[in-house]
């Protein structure tokens, strides 16, 4: 089974990769913030299961929060829309009310 992990360099992503590498039936693909949308599209097409763990908790600018936490999730969902038999595990450890208020002002 091919598994894609977004946020692979984060605490949860790194530990998940360590656990999954112990099992031979999994091939692991990583998506990190330096990756491009084209790379993400390719990884999604190869993945059977996606752990979407990417996120920003303390961005320097509010737009960074939106780009990573909202836009990336929308991009993944859009790329998955026409895929068959893809499984997505979406995980968000924390979501701050402050960001919701400020995001409304940005939009």
TrEMBL record:
SUPFAM superfamilies: NAD(P)-binding Rossmann-fold domains. Signal peptide: none annotated. Gene3D superfamilies: NAD(P)-binding Rossmann-like Domain. It comes from the Bacteria. Residues 3-90 form the NAD-dependent epimerase/dehydratase domain. Pfam families: Epimerase. This is Putative dihydrodipicolinate reductase domain protein. It comes from Leptospira weilii serovar Topaz str. LT2116. The lineage of its organism: Bacteria, Pseudomonadati, Spirochaetota, Spirochaetia, Leptospirales.
């Amino acid at each position: 089974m091919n598994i894609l992990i977004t946020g692979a360099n984060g605490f949860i992503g790194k530990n998940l990769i360590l656990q999954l590498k112990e099992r031979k039936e999994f091939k692991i693909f990583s998506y990190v913030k330096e990756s491009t949308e084209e790379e993400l599209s390719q990884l999604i097409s190869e993945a059977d299961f996606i752990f979407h763990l990417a996120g920003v908790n303390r961005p320097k600018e509010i737009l960074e929060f939106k780009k990573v936490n909202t836009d990336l999730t929308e991009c993944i969902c859009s790329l998955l829309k026409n895929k068959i038999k893809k499984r997505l595990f979406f995980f968000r450890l924390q979501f701050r009310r402050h960001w919701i208020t400020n995001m409304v002002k940005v939009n």
